[in-house]
Amino acid sequence: MVFKLVYMLLDWSVGFYSLASSLSSKTALLDSSIGFNCPFDALMVFQSMKLVNQNPNSITLVSLLSACTRLLNICIGTSIHSHVIVNNIKLDVALGTALLEMYSKCGSIEVALQVFSSLEEKNLQSWTIMISGVADHGRGEDAISLFTQMEENGLKPDSLSFSGILSACSHLGLVEEGKRYFDQMVNTNGIKPTMEHYGCMIDMLGRAGMIEEAYRVIKSMPMEPNSVILRNFIGSSKNRGEVVCLDENLRKLLLQIEPDLGANYVLAACVSSVSENWNDVASLRDAMKGRRLKKAPGCSWVEVNSASSGEIIQPAVG
User: Fold this and answer.
1) What is the DSSP string of 79-93?
2) I need a surface site. Which of 54, 118, 222, 297 has the fewest CB within 10 A?
3) Distance between CA atoms of 95 and 113, rounded to whole angstroms?
4) Tens of pLDDT along 100-157?
5) Closest Cα partner for 61 from 35, 21, 30, 107?
């Protein structure tokens, strides 16, 4: 019964989107679907185009690739790439950038690099997406190389470009380089650091065991640190066995920002155990029980031959 209902809804969706007869109307529908964060609807528009043998143009394909990126659907994304090749559609900067972003976000970084290299024209967005892509895949040296090439090509890095290169420095443990890029961003390029930039710096310093310096960065922030920054910093303190002077206040701030996340209480309790503050540990565990909170298990999700497979990793909470 459930599957029958799903198929009925799919048939209705395709029929509904087929009412928009012109290519421009369907492109507008695609853009609206993406704008309202409904990528599945965008693919339904594409399906309706195929039913009436209506070939999408370059603008339409960019929207379709954006939908594939949000859904992490590399199968349809690859089909769109094949359509581009078979129909000799020119890979302009917009289409090429959308294509390399889809491959990068879906895990095919080598194909993304091939698409990037094949582009005759690259804009700042193309470079930034590629830098962030290789950085996210742990290829920090490639990210630094691309960043240098981008500057040599006369393009001025923006806020997103610096986020990518700072993330790369963090993963590679290149502390001095990361500091240099941060200084360049602020003092040379005149870019005001965002929460993400500060997060990259704190993560980089924490990974390197420079806890006191990471703490100074937190204190220098013009805004209150978010939960991600606090978790990274407190986690680094725990791993290094260091509890800095105002760590108690940071733990309280974390629990204040996200009071209903069990992992925060577990992390705070672990830090208290490092300083042998057992009363605090007991209090945090009681607070978890009072709120009926549990630490969610870690999980991983991969796609093999178009089939998804998940693995749950149970947390060790002693």
Assistant:
1) HHHHHHHHTT----H
2) 222
3) 15
4) 999 999 999 999 999 999 999 999 999 999 999 998 898 888 999 999 999 999 999 9
5) 30
